[in-house]
Amino acid sequence: MDGDEERQILSTYQAGRILSVSSQTIRRWIKSGQLRGYTLNQEYKLLRQDVMAYIKKKLLPADSNPVHDKGNLPEKYKKKKGVKS
């Protein structure tokens, strides 16, 4: 992601689409301090980098690496030795 895309300004609708929640939920998260937002012309705006940071902070456990850490997978997703796929 380049610097321009990182500083992209998003509406609550756009942020909601990224996070799969409603605009109202985004506004609630901003008001409660869970998500960083700014007011511009009496509307909330968000920086894309702040939305991505929220995803990292809230949706991924701090001690996991989803690409390389198979230890956190539920048993049904782990390959069993001796069983052909």
Please give a structural write-up.
There is one protein chain. With 85 residues, the chain is α+β, with helices and mostly antiparallel strands. The protein has a single domain, classed as Multidrug-efflux Transporter Regulator, Chain: A, Domain 2 (Orthogonal Bundle). Helices cover 40% and strands 13% of the residues. It has 4 helices and 3 strands. It has helices at residues 3-6, 12-19, 23-32, 48-59; strands at residues 9-11, 38-40, 43-47. It has a 3-stranded antiparallel beta sheet. A hairpin with a 2-residue loop joins β2 and β3 (43-47). α2 packs across α3. The longest helix has 12 residues, at 48-59.
**Order of adjacent strands in the largest pleated sheet:** 1-3-2
CATH architecture: Orthogonal Bundle
Q: Give the strand tally.
A: 3
User: H/E series, N to C?
Assistant: HEHHEEH
Counted up, domains total 1
Overall pLDDT confidence? 81
Give the count of helical stretches.
Answer: 4
Euclidean distance between termini CA atoms = 36 Å
Helix and strand content put the structural class at: alpha+beta
| Biggest sheet details | 3 strands, antiparallel
Would you identify the regions where 5 or more consecutive residues have pLDDT less than 50? none
Bulk shape? elongated
Q: Roughly how many Å is the radius of gyration?
A: 18 Å
